[in-house]
Write a structure and sequence with these properties.
Structural class: mainly alpha
Length: about 325
């Protein structure tokens, strides 16, 4: 009896394996074109995203050039202890989170505002000209933006101080005061990115069903009521997706902006230093690969935890709007 039961169990397992194998091959044969199209994307992510992750081991090693990445001796969590005991970990984490939260909120607000205003403009030439001018800063590098900022705020011959002294007022030394940069950095971030962000929302608005807007006009709704009761609610899915993508990068600072606009200005360092600039200085100045890798891994883990929490909250309240 026991032998018959074992035989029956083996037969069931063999049948399941055959079904699984057949199902997989049938699925590949049925959608072979889609899977062939997916192969280059999969190779891209494997080569440029997953294979480089092997470098994580440097965060747990005392790296030296002679023995290389895999031959260097293991040090456990010493690099993390050095990173957190340096007194910079909390400072750069706070600055990164604070600046990116302000950047994200301002970017979303002004991108939606600009997209709605452009969509409601009536003159085609004026609309295209405005959109082009707003999109232009997106193509400027942060090096060019840094030159603009320097020529605006330089203490001796900057445009701002030239105007102030011309009006009989005292010049302002912006590069020696941290308080101004809490406003200057978000301003230039929005100035550079709002044109690109508005295009995303404008493309979503152009895809809305116009019959609802025509019905609202017939019912007497003015432009503000149409924006409030139609455009803003319809933009909700796009806003949530872009917000989640932005939250996923909230611990990754805009390195180019901070490094080009601030540089190695020690006076502004405590107010503007972020994880990315700290890691970069660790590599360039002290060539501390272990601490730099520990900082980068710490940053990636924070991003992963934050995006999982944010996506979980969205899924809890509206499952259809979640990323996964």
């Amino acid at each position: 009896m026991a032998a018959e039961v074992k035989t029956a169990v083996k037969a069931v397992k063999r049948t399941k394996l055959e079904r699984k194998g057949g199902g997989l091959f049938k699925e590949l044969a049925r959608n072979k074109v889609l899977y062939l199209m997916f192969v280059p994307i999969a190779l891209y992510f494997i080569i440029f995203n997953y294979i480089p992750m092997a470098g994580i081991v440097v965060a747990f090693k005392s790296f030296n050039y002679q023995e290389g990445m895999f031959g260097s001796p293991w040090t456990g969590f010493d690099n993390f202890e050095y990173f957190f005991s340096s007194g910079k970990a909390w400072l750069v984490t706070k600055n990164t989170f604070m600046y990116n939260s302000v950047f994200l909120a301002a970017y979303l607000f002004f991108s939606i505002l600009v997209a709605v205003l452009i969509a409601e403009m009536s003159g085609k030439i004026f609309k295209k000209t405005t959109q082009t001018l707003l999109f232009l800063p997106y193509f400027l590098s942060w090096v060019a933006v840094a030159a603009i900022v320097y020529n605006l705020f330089n203490y001796e011959y900057g445009l701002l101080n030239s105007v102030l002294t011309g009006l009989g007022l005292d010049p302002v030394d912006i590069y020696s005061s941290t308080s101004y940069w809490y406003f200057i950095l978000p301003f230039f971030y929005v100035w550079k990115w709002v044109g690109f962000g508005s295009v995303l929302y404008l493309s979503a608005i152009m895809g809305f069903d116009t019959s609802a807007y025509e019905a609202a006009k017939i019912d007497g709704a003015n432009v503000f009521q149409r924006v409030r009761y139609l455009t803003i609610p319809l933009l909700k899915p796009t806003t949530i997706i872009l917000l989640l993508l932005g939250i996923g990068r909230i611990m990754r600072g805009e390195f180019d902006m901070f490094y080009q606009l601030i540089g190695n200005n020690g006076i502004l360092m405590d107010a503007t230093d972020i994880i990315d600039t700290l890691v970069f200085r660790s590599l360039i100045v002290s060539q501390d690969f272990g601490m730099a890798s520990a900082g980068g891994l710490y940053q990636s883990v924070l991003c992963f935890v934050i995006i999982m929490i944010a996506n979980g909250l969205v899924k809890r309240y509206d499952r259809d709007q979640a990323l996964f």
